[in-house]
Amino acid sequence: MQLALFVTSATWFVASDILAGRSARGLSERFGLDAERPLLAALFLLFLLAVGFSILQAIAHRHSSLREVLGLPMRSTSRREWTLGVAVGWGCVVLAILPMTLTGKLDVQLWLQARAIWLLLLNLVTLGIAALAEEVAFRGYPFRRLIEAIGPVAATIGMSLLFGLGHALNPGLPGPAFL
């Protein structure tokens, strides 16, 4: 049963990702929201994952809060974990960008026009929502079902491979991301 729930949740993720992208494209074209399209897609994806995973949880006859279904249970250490995650993530970004900036391989410019500030904020929110949706998809409900089906070690290896494959197929990459 757990393996069937995992496969169904993985299929739901793929379908939700496609539907979220198409919905965001349609709305952004209809209402002239080109800059907001990635945020709309991330929000739609997160919503669809929450709905689908909640339905699967109900089918499995398990009562859980939405936070638990999404793999975001409330713990006494939650705030510290989120803060540490944000700090480490931004630290990695700075460590990746700083050497390129200091060696002149990356030209960083700061614009203070209202549109530039709006786009910066929009992109930061989009990155946050998209990262949350990705965590829910790869480390939330599907991951827990796979752990129950095949055990924690095999599930971790399997989800890591799926995660890597998912990123290797990102559009705009010159070749596979894992090379």
Helix and strand element order: HHHHHHH
Proportion of strand residues: under 5%
Number of helical runs?
A: 7
Overall shape: globular
The span between the termini is: 36 Å
In percent, how helical is the residue content?
Answer: over 70%
How many strands, which pairing sense, and closed or not: the largest β-sheet?
Answer: none
Structural class: mainly alpha
How large is the radius of gyration?
19 Å
> Averaging pLDDT over every residue, what do you get?
88
Contiguous uncertain segments of 5+ residues: none
- Topology, number of strands: 0
Give the SSE map:
Blueprint: H1 2-31, H2 37-59, H3 66-69, H4 78-102, H5 114-139, H6 141-150, H7 152-168
Description:
The protein has 179 residues and is mainly α. The chain is built from 7 helices and no strands. Helix 1 (2-31) packs antiparallel against helix 2. The protein is globular and about 55 Å long. It starts with a helix and ends in an 11-residue tail after the last helix. The mean pLDDT is 88.
Q: Which labels suit this protein?
A:
single chain; 179 residues; mainly alpha; 7 helices; 0% strand
Short description:
The chain is mostly helical. The protein has helices spanning 2-31, 37-59, 66-69, 78-102, 114-139, 141-150, 152-168.
